[in-house]
Design a protein that fits this description.
3-stranded antiparallel sheet; 2 domains; 5 strands; Arc Repressor Mutant, subunit A; two-stranded antiparallel sheet; mainly alpha; 10 helices
């Protein structure tokens, strides 16, 4: 079977098509900071990739802050345990760094190590215990975050990646809503999170 010339020409301009499709289909985010070569390829031919994936039934979204993912609006009605736990993990990390006077928008600069996670656990023990998250579980959860493109492992610990902006945006939205309503910001409930939270689960 001969591939039509127009299609062949389009595919020749997307050499990373198979690799990107596998990455996004697995539920992972692509981050400019972690995978600059793949990001440059996607950004250079953004319209072609978006159009082709749309024809296959997938909605590819690129955020100007440097990350991309397959968006699945249907998943929001069924928030999984991992998504909820990741939300809690990132929330307590941001809370601890805010208390330390760190600029939250510079979260990709933070180096997170196991000793610091233990300190975060001590600060939020009741909250984390309620979700069954001890220090070892937090380390395991960061491994899940790496698999989904929200973090990257380094010899001395982990760094958060730009895709975490999806969670940060949601936290800020909830905080703004609470401020408007005159309430103190609180831990997002599962109903809050289901409204428009990241729809990410590892596909095994």
């Amino acid at each position: 079977m001969t591939i039509p010339h127009a299609l062949a020409a389009a595919l020749s301009q997307m050499p990373a098509l198979a690799e990107l499709f596998r990455l996004f289909l697995s539920g992972k985010h692509l981050n400019r900071m972690a995978e600059p070569t793949l990001w440059a390829e996607l950004e250079q031919h953004e319209a072609s990739y978006v159009g082709l994936f749309a024809a296959l039934g997938f909605e590819l979204r690129l955020d100007a802050r440097g990350f991309a993912w397959f968006h699945n609006s249907d998943a929001n009605s069924n928030i999984g345990k991992i998504s909820r736990q990741l939300a809690l993990l990132f929330m307590v990390i941001f809370d601890a760094q805010a208390n330390a006077g760190k600029a939250l928008q510079r979260f990709t600069d933070w180096l997170i190590d196991s000793a610091w996670l233990v300190e975060v656990y001590k600060q939020q023990q009741d909250l984390l215990d309620a979700e069954g998250l001890n220090p070892d579980a937090l380390v395991e959860l960061l491994g899940r975050a790496c698999n989904l493109g929200f973090a990257m492992a380094e010899p001395a610990g982990w760094r958060l990646l730009p895709a975490v902006c999806r969670y940060l945006d949601h936290f800020e939205s909830l905080a703004l809503t609470a401020k408007t309503d005159g309430d103190e910001p609180s831990v997002p409930t599962e109903d809050d999170w289901a409204a428009d939270a990241p729809d990410d689960e590892e596909n095994t």
